[in-house]
């Protein structure tokens, strides 16, 4: 028996995606539980995958966990550069995306967003830590971030021990991509200047 997704892929069914507004309304009314383990990608409510490749997708891999914690330790440095670092919090990319990236560099201060999450124009850089989620992070998520015009997208690729740096959004992709390896330094853009750290701190 074919699933509805297989029918849609074969052109025999049309799936209507959730919009960000519908997603919020469903959460507000309790129809969809507010759950930190899911996000809205391409109109689908998707469970976050933070597991080590090949392991139970319900678990959080140790390398993923440590990389996010080490990113979070950089927050005070961004506070002095006209922006702040948020980790695993939503950014709104209408009409059909509300991802919760592992980290995002956001213009201004936290109090600027007391009644709404940041949107695309507020975000300087998005960072995803990718292990078993690699295909999602360099596929649909990359397309969502690029289409929204987010200037910089960084993927910490734990599968291949490298950091992928995407710049210059152009439609559903980025015009430039560079790769750095262990022993190199990663420079995270801020509103004014940048914050640097050894790539080894994230690739561990």
What's the arrangement of secondary structure elements?
Layout: H1 4-9, H2 20-28, E1 38-41, E2 44-47, H3 62-72, H4 75-79, E3 83-86, E4 103-107, E5 123-130, H5 134-137, H6 140-147, E6 152-157, E7 162-170, E8 173-180, E9 185-189, E10 194-198, H7 200-203
Parallel strand pairs: 5-6
Antiparallel strand pairs: 1-2, 3-4, 4-5, 6-7, 7-8, 9-10
Summarize this entry quickly.
This protein is α+β, with helices and mostly antiparallel strands and 204 residues long. The protein has seven helices and ten strands.
Model description:
Strand 9 and strand 10 (194-198) form a beta hairpin. The protein has 7 helices and 10 strands. The longest helix is centred in the N-terminal third of the chain and has 11 residues, at 62-72. It has helices at 4-9, 20-28, 62-72, 75-79, 134-137, 140-147, 200-203; strands at 38-41, 44-47, 83-86, 103-107, 123-130, 152-157, 162-170, 173-180, 185-189, 194-198. It has one domain: tt1808, chain A (Alpha-Beta Complex), CATH 3.90.1570. The chain is α+β, with helices and mostly antiparallel strands. The termini are far apart. The strands form 3 sheets. Strands 3-4-5-6-7-8 form a 6-stranded mixed sheet. A two-stranded antiparallel ribbon has the order 1-2. Strands 9-10 form a two-stranded antiparallel ribbon.
| Rg over C-alpha atoms, rounded to the nearest angstrom | 17 Å
Per DSSP E runs of 2 or more residues, the count of β-strands stands at 10
As a percent range, the share of helical residues equals 10-25%
Q: If you average the pLDDT, what whole number results? A: 94
Tally the structural domains: 1
Strand content: 25-35%
Question: What's the story with the biggest beta sheet?
Answer: 6 strands, mixed
Q: Which residues sit in consecutive blocks of at least 5 with pLDDT less than 50?
A: none
CATH class: Alpha Beta
The second-level CATH architecture is Alpha-Beta Complex
Q: Distance between the terminal alpha carbons, to the nearest Å?
A: 44 Å
Number of helices: 7
SSE-based structural type: alpha+beta
